[in-house]
Known about the structure:
9 strands; 2 domains; globular; 7 helices; single chain; four-stranded antiparallel sheet; alpha+beta; Immunoglobulin-like
Amino acid sequence: MNRLPPEILDALAAEYVLGTLTGRVRARLSRMMQQDARLAARVAWWDDKLAPLGDAVPAVPAPLRVWRRLEEAIGPDSAGSAARRTPRAGWWNSLPVWRWSTAMASVLAIALVFAPVPQPPPVTLTPEGGLVLVLTDDESRTAWLVSRRTAADPLRAQPLALPVLTLEQAYELWLLPPDAAPLSLGLLDDTESTVLPVPDDLSTRLQPGFGMAVSIEPPGGSPTGAPTGPVVFTGSIREL
């Protein structure tokens, strides 16, 4: 993973902040941040960039059933059922307490990232078949991160920064083998991660060095089995 180019590490840093990295890949990236100040800086940059998005989401009061489940998990309240139905004001609901606890959590998180830790033994990120690629536009701006953990897993395509499509448009992902015409891997959701099962006959063709591309097609995908709209993003497969 240390040999991955900067643009892929940057995309992985974005996924780390989004919370879409899981398992050994996330654990490995966490260890790398402790040893690589530049990677830690990129994660911090993405965190600063994405954190304000949460402020734009209005607060939603928790439904009564949520409070009841919480109270059932905590235990009976001697104050009676009427008191249990309404969240009580107190130190736990105090805004200064929440701000203090959030600040302490941030300090602890920074300390955990930069504190020296014993060097772990080398970790094998994935069995054979893991791959990753970053799809960029013609100005090298990152648009998609496509990855697969093992040869038995589906592809996962994570949108990072995309132009808005109309209702009559959709993104379609293509494999570009050097010895054949483009092969469709499926339609992509431009608002969230897309999971794409890979047929066995295509799985063996997902090789490092092969290209992938995204074109703009009608909502149901290309009607011809080949790209019919403009190809807007491209990239090359790399072994994870």
